[in-house]
Amino acid sequence: MSTLQVVGLTGWTHLASVKGGFMRSVPLAQGHHIRIVSKVRLPMQVDGEPLIQAPCVLDVRPLETVKLLIPQPLE
Q1: In this predicted model, which residue has the larger pLDDT, 35 or 48?
Q2: What is the pLDDT of residue 33?
Q3: DSSP string, 18-52
Q4: According to the model, what pLDDT value does residue 50 have?
Q5: What's the longest Cα–Cα distance across the chain?
Q6: 20 with 6: CB under 8 angstroms?
Q7: Residue 15 carries which DSSP code?
Q8: Long-range contacts made by residues 2-7, C-beta under 8 angstroms, separation at least 24?
Q9: What is the CA radius of gyration of the chain?
Q10: Do residues 38 and 58 make contact, with C-beta atoms less than 8 angstroms apart?
Q11: Which of 20, 39, 43, 67 is least enclosed by beta carbons within 10 angstroms?
């Protein structure tokens, strides 16, 4: 089963530094099923797109996994 990772950023300058490879994000959680309960509006980035998320419950889990097929070299 896939492992999900949730990371945090301190602001847009931190995000730019992480994207540029100058800094690292702050690891917050890791697991197979992650639930985040937000009581305030939060800035987020989902699939590379910025988003201001209204208060909600985020229930995150992988839907399916993909097996990687590696061809064997011909002898």
Answers
A1: 35
A2: 87
A3: HHHTSS--EEEEEESSEEEEESS-EEEEETTEEEE
A4: 85
A5: 60
A6: no
A7: H
A8: 2/32, 2/62, 2/65, 3/30, 3/31, 3/32, 4/30, 4/31, 4/32, 4/33, 4/34, 4/60, 4/61, 4/62, 5/29, 5/30, 6/30, 6/34, 6/36, 6/60
A9: 17
A10: yes
A11: 67
This prediction has a pTM of: 0.55
Q: Which of the listed ranges 12-16, 28-32, 52-56, 69-73 does the model predict with the highest average pLDDT?
A: 52-56
Rounded Cα distance between 67 and 1, Å, is: 11
Two tokens at 22?
């100058």
Integer Cα distance of 56 and 32 in angstroms: 20
Residue reference for tokens 């999900």: 4
Mean pLDDT of the chain: 85
Torsion of CA 48, 62, 23, 40, to 10 degrees: 70
Amino acid at 75: E
